[in-house]
């Protein structure tokens, strides 16, 4: 491996981010019914269709964009999700991508540290917009452990992203016994316990998609 290949392996390019959006759309599409079933149990049965529509629109927007900078691409994803997903998740995921993009302003190759800083900003956006914190049975219960796991590998992007994807899946599963105190599921009170949060499930898919992209790279 040359020195250039070694440093490329430690960073995400704009093309990698574009691939992340495409892989996310595939995984969300494949799991849309499952997400909707989760939302049927504790919400209004629209999360899968909302997210499928939004990610498909994001793929179109990103493909047509010819983006050369990470921040512009991620902000485009954010505005597209805000205008197409609807429900609570649209503005929350939209804010996530807008804030993550903002934190990566002017950066080309995103290494594990920069990615963690970007995710931290994005997750902070979800918490602020949703007035939520961890333990309330929301997507934050998948995002927060993912960020913590990523931070344990500051010099190894692939290991960090793989750990983040695993932590997000564990965080998703850990929402099952929780009682929801934010969002539509909170209307059910104690009866929200015993079901996985749909937003935590879609977040785990977005991180699985990023892991797929990073793991599949030859450089
Ligand atoms: P809606 O609840 O409006 O139908 P969706 O079904 O698309 O929207 O998304 C629901 C998901 O959004 C929940 O599973 C949860 O993860 C997330 N969510 C809802 N409200 C909040 C909030 N206040 N803060 C963080 N996440 C939230
Ligand atoms: Mg819903």
Would you kindly provide a written description of the structure presented here, covering whatever features stand out?
It contains ten helices and no strands. With about 220 residues, the chain is mainly α. α6 (about 90-105) runs antiparallel to α7 (about 110-130). The longest helix has 19 residues, at about 45-65. Bound molecules: adenosine-5'-diphosphate and magnesium ion.
Uncertain segments of ≥5 residues (pLDDT<50)?
Answer: none
* Biggest beta-sheet profile: none
Shape: globular
**Which small-molecule ligands are present, each listed once?**
adenosine-5'-diphosphate, magnesium ion
State the helicity in percent bands: 55-70%
Average pLDDT for all residues: 95
Roughly how many Å is the radius of gyration?
A: 16 Å
Secondary-structure element pattern, one letter each: HHHHHHHHHH
Q: Work out the strand percent.
A: under 5%
Number of E-state strands: 0
Structural class: mainly alpha
End-to-end Cα distance? 9 Å
| Tally of contiguous helical segments | 10
């Amino acid at each position: 491996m040359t020195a250039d290949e070694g440093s490329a392996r430690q960073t995400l390019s704009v093309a990698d981010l574009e691939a992340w959006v495409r892989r996310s759309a595939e995984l969300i599409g494949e799991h849309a019914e499952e997400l909707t079933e989760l939302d049927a149990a504790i919400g209004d049965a629209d999360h899968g269709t909302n997210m499928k529509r939004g990610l498909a629109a994001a793929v179109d927007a990103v493909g047509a964009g010819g983006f050369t900078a990470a921040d512009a691409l991620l902000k485009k994803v954010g505005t597209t999700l805000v205008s197409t997903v609807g429900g609570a998740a649209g503005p929350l995921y939209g804010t996530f991508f807008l804030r993550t993009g903002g934190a990566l302003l002017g950066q080309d190759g995103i290494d594990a540290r920069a990615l963690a800083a970007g995710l931290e900003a994005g997750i902070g956006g979800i918490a602020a917009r949703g007035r939520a914190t961890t333990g309330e049975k929301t997507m934050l219960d998948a995002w927060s452990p993912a960020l913590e796991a990523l931070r344990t590998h500051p010099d190894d992007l692939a290991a960090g992203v793989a750990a983040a994807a695993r932590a997000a899946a564990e965080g998703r599963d850990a929402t099952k016994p929780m009682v929801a105190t934010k969002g539509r599921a909170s209307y059910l009170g104690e009866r929200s316990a015993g079901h996985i949060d749909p937003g935590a499930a879609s977040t785990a898919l977005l991180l699985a998609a990023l892991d797929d992209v990073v793991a599949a790279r030859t450089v």
